C-alpha cells in the first residue's frame, strides 16, 4: 500500500471515530494493522473478553512471530486459565490447557508441566509462585502492565502505537478544499452554492448575472474557511489603530460599521486623543488581506497541540507601568535598536540542569533574574536558582481541596490523578506565580524569596484543560485564563473571585495576551481554529475577529517597550508563521523567513531587547532582527534539543533557557549573563536580594515614578519598584544595618515540642518489642516493614476504608500488625553470636513480593504474602551487612560483607558472579545509580567507593571529610541517591554530606553539633527534604538543596515522658509517595509515623539564602566547592 493510501486509512479512522462508529473503527484498525489502539486493548483485557483480545492482536502479530509475541499470548492464556481455576470450573480450565496452552509446551516443557499440576490443587494459590495472586480485577491489572511493556518492546508494533497528529475533521477539511477549488473553477460561481452531493464534481448553474467567487460554506462540511472582504478599522487606542481613510463594508460581514472616518494620522504618536467611549474603540474587523497562499483553506487546529507549553512574549510587568515611560513609536522610527548587535545574543551554553521530566513551560523571575520557574509534563512546578544550580522549591501536582471541586473533576481525578502543565508565569513583581494545568485547575503560589513557595489560591478555572494564563492589571491585579471549554476568564488574584467571562470562540482557546494603550486595557486571545479575538474588560463581546496566518495555533507577544506586536504559530500541516502585525491596519506587516516547513508541535518564540526575536525550531534556536525578515543566526546549543524546544529569555536578554530532549534545561548566556551567574558577583547579590514582599494584591500605583530602565530594559540589574516607589537601582544601594536585620527576620526555625503541633502514631505491637534495626515502607506505600534486633520481621498494613480511601500509610489511621493465617513469623537465621551484636540488613523487591534479609546468619528470602522462607544461602563467615537489589534485574543482588568485600550474587542460579574488593572495613551502605551505571558503596571507616556496573571495576575511592578533633570509632556510613541519580547523600554520625557522582565531589556538608550523633538520615520521596534522627531523640528536617535546617521535632512531640528510659530513633524511613511523611524505628522497639498538620502542609518553612545565620545547624562552608 502506498504512503498516501496508508494516510487515507488514518483519515478514515479519524472520521469513523468522530462519527462514533466504534466497532467499525476497531475493525479497520485490526484489518489494516496500521494503528494499535492501546486504550481499546486495555478495555478488552480489563473486561476479560479474551477471544476479542486475541482477535484484535491477530491483526498485528501471531504467537510464533517472536519471543515478545509468544510471551504476550502466553500471559493472556495463562490468565484465562487461572480465572477458570479460580471459578472452580476445572472442565473449562482443562479445555484452555489443551487448546490454548499446549502450544507453548514445545518451547518450555517444564513450565507446561507446572501449569498442568495446578489442576490437582484445591487452590492454585498453594503454589508458592502464585501465593500472591489476588482477585481477578487486580490480577488483570498487573498482567496488563506487563502486556503493555511487551507490546512497546515488540518490534512488530513499532510505529503502530502512536496515531498521527491530525487536525480535527481532517477528511472533511480536504473535501471542503476540493469543493472550494471546484467552485472557483465554475464559470458562473454563485455566492452561496447549494451542495447536495459529493458523488459528482460541483458546478454552479447559470445565474441571471455573474458574481464574484466565494468560498463554499455548506454546513454539511462544517469547517472554517477564509472570509472575503475588508478589515474595518479599530478605535484610535485599541489594539489596531485606524487608517485615515474609511473602508467599505463588503458583503455585510461587519457589524456596526463606523459611518465616518476616524481622523487620526497613523504617522502620529501612538495614543493621542482618547475617545470618550472606551467601548467604541474596538469594532468588528475584516479578515486580513489574503496576501499569502499559505493562508488559503487552513482549518481548525487540533486539541493535540494544547498539551504543549507556550513560553512566549515578554514579562507582563510592562502592563503595570504608566504609559509615559514607554517610548513613543512613530512609523518611521527604528525603535532605538542600533545600540545592539548579534553579539549581544546569549549563545554560550553555561550550564545544564537535570529536570527529570519533560519541560512544558519556562519563565524567569522579573526581579531576581537568576531564578527560573519551570513546569513539566508530570505536573511538577519548581524554582531553580541558577548560580548554585539548585532546585530551591518544588511543588508536585496535588489538588488542595478535592471536596470543593465539581463532581466531573472529582471523577476525572479518581480515574487518573495526573496532570501536565501548560503554562507557568511570574506576576510582574515576582511575588506570585501562576500555573495552568491540563485538568481544569489553576494554582497561584506566593513567593517570598529563597525556597518559600506557598499555596495561595486554587481555582477550578475551566472544564477540561487550562491552556494558558497571564497576569494583568485593569484596575487591580488579576489573572487571565483560557481553556478547552472555549472561554476566557478573569480572576481576582487575592480572593479568587471570577470577574469576567468572555465567550465567542468556536474552538478551544489556545493563548491569551493582555496589554494596554494609554488607559485602555485589552486582551488578545487565540484559538486552535486560527481565530484571533480582542476583548475589553466588559461584557460586550469581542471587538476583533480575524484569522491567524495559516490558521495556526498562535501565541502573541509585544516587544519589551510595548510598541510592536508579534505572533508565532504552527498549523497541523507543520507550517509555522512568525509575523509582525501592523497595528494601524490589523494586517500582517512582515513575515519572517526561516522556520521549518514541517515543524513538530507548536513552535515557541520570545522577544528581547526591543530588537531580537527567537524561536525553537528544527532542533535548534533561531534568531531574527525585528527589522529584517531574513534569519539572523541559529545555534544548536551543543545538540540535544527537541524538535520544538521551549525557550525563554530573562528580562534583560542576557540569559536564555532552552528545554532539551533528555528532560533537562540548558542555560545560554552572553557576556553579561556569564557575569550574572558568577557565584559572588555583586550584580548577582543585588538581583537576588530578598526584598520583603508587599501584601498579596498590593501593586505599584500607575502613577509611581518608575525609572526608564524598565522601559528600555538595558541595565543588567533592573530597577526595583518598592512599596514606596523607590526607583533606585539595587546595584547602587548598599544594605543598611536595618535592612540586614529585616532580612534576618524573613525566616525562623520551626520548633515542634508538643504532640498538638504534628500528627504522630505509634504502631500497635503485640509481639515482644526489641530494638528496631531496619525500617522500610513497601514500594506501594501501603505498609511498613521493620526488622528487630532479635531477627524477627514485623509488617503493618493499612486498610482501605472511609477514613483512608487510598489505603496508604498515614498517621491518622491505625494499621494492623499483619500475620498470615498460619501465624508464622518471618525470622532470620541466627548465627552463634549474640543477636544484639549482629548486623541486620534487608532489601525489598520492587513489586513488594519478596524480602531478602539477614541478621548475622544466612541470608533468607521470604514471601511477603505467606511469610514462608523461600530459600536461605551464604552461611557466615563472613556475614552479610548490607543488601541491595540491582535496579535492572531483581535476580541480581549486591551483598556487602563483614569482611569488607561486596559480592554480586545471582539468586536464580545461586552463584556469586564477582567479588569486589577495595574497602578496608565492613560494608555499611550500597546505592545503585541506573543513570550513571554505577554502584556506590560505603564502609564503617567512612570510605566511599564507586564501581562500574558494566565490568564491576573500581572507579574511585574517597573518605568522608571528618572534622578535625572529632575522630570517631567505626560507625555506619549510609549512602542514598537523589532522584536525579547523580547527587549522593552520605550519612555519618558526625555529618550529612552531598556528593556529586561519579567523581565524589563534595558539594555540601552539614555537621552535627549540639544534638549529639546522627543515628540515621534519608531523602524524602521527592528528594527535596532530608529527615535526620539523633541520639537525643530529636528529628531534624533539612532542605536537601542547601542542607539548611528548617524544622526540628523534639522527642516531647511524639514520645511519652519517661525519665528512667532513654529512647531514641535508630532508623528513619521516608514514605515512597508522600513527601512529608516519615517513620521512625526506636531503641525500645516502637515504630512511629509522623506527618505535619494539614493546616501547615509541610515541616517548617525553608530559610532564604541569606537567612542561614539564624539556623543553629552548622554549615561547614570551608568544605563547600564553589556553588554549582
TrEMBL record:
<dbReference type="InterPro" id="IPR036322">
    <property type="entry name" value="WD40_repeat_dom_sf"/>
</dbReference>
<keyword id="KW-0853">WD repeat</keyword>
<dbReference type="InterPro" id="IPR027728">
    <property type="entry name" value="Topless_fam"/>
</dbReference>
<protein>
    <recommendedName>
        <fullName>CTLH domain-containing protein</fullName>
    </recommendedName>
</protein>
<dbReference type="Pfam" id="PF00400">
    <property type="entry name" value="WD40"/>
</dbReference>
<dbReference type="Pfam" id="PF23383">
    <property type="entry name" value="Beta-prop_IFT140_1st"/>
</dbReference>
<dbReference type="GO" id="GO:0006355">
    <property type="term" value="P:regulation of DNA-templated transcription"/>
</dbReference>
<feature type="repeat" description="WD">
    <location>
        <begin position="459"/>
        <end position="501"/>
    </location>
</feature>
<dbReference type="InterPro" id="IPR006594">
    <property type="entry name" value="LisH"/>
</dbReference>
<feature type="repeat" description="WD">
    <location>
        <begin position="916"/>
        <end position="950"/>
    </location>
</feature>
<dbReference type="InterPro" id="IPR056154">
    <property type="entry name" value="Beta-prop_IFT140_1st"/>
</dbReference>
<dbReference type="Pfam" id="PF17814">
    <property type="entry name" value="LisH_TPL"/>
</dbReference>
<dbReference type="InterPro" id="IPR054532">
    <property type="entry name" value="TPL_SMU1_LisH-like"/>
</dbReference>
<keyword id="KW-0677">Repeat</keyword>
<dbReference type="InterPro" id="IPR001680">
    <property type="entry name" value="WD40_rpt"/>
</dbReference>
<feature type="compositionally biased region" description="Polar residues">
    <location>
        <begin position="1108"/>
        <end position="1124"/>
    </location>
</feature>
<dbReference type="Pfam" id="PF21889">
    <property type="entry name" value="TPR1-like_2nd"/>
</dbReference>
<dbReference type="GO" id="GO:0010072">
    <property type="term" value="P:primary shoot apical meristem specification"/>
</dbReference>
<dbReference type="InterPro" id="IPR015943">
    <property type="entry name" value="WD40/YVTN_repeat-like_dom_sf"/>
</dbReference>
<feature type="region of interest" description="Disordered">
    <location>
        <begin position="1098"/>
        <end position="1124"/>
    </location>
</feature>
<dbReference type="Pfam" id="PF21359">
    <property type="entry name" value="zf_topless"/>
</dbReference>
<dbReference type="InterPro" id="IPR019775">
    <property type="entry name" value="WD40_repeat_CS"/>
</dbReference>
<dbReference type="InterPro" id="IPR006595">
    <property type="entry name" value="CTLH_C"/>
</dbReference>
<keyword id="KW-0678">Repressor</keyword>
<dbReference type="InterPro" id="IPR054080">
    <property type="entry name" value="TPR1-like_2nd"/>
</dbReference>
<feature type="domain" description="CTLH">
    <location>
        <begin position="34"/>
        <end position="92"/>
    </location>
</feature>
<dbReference type="InterPro" id="IPR048419">
    <property type="entry name" value="Topless_Znf"/>
</dbReference>
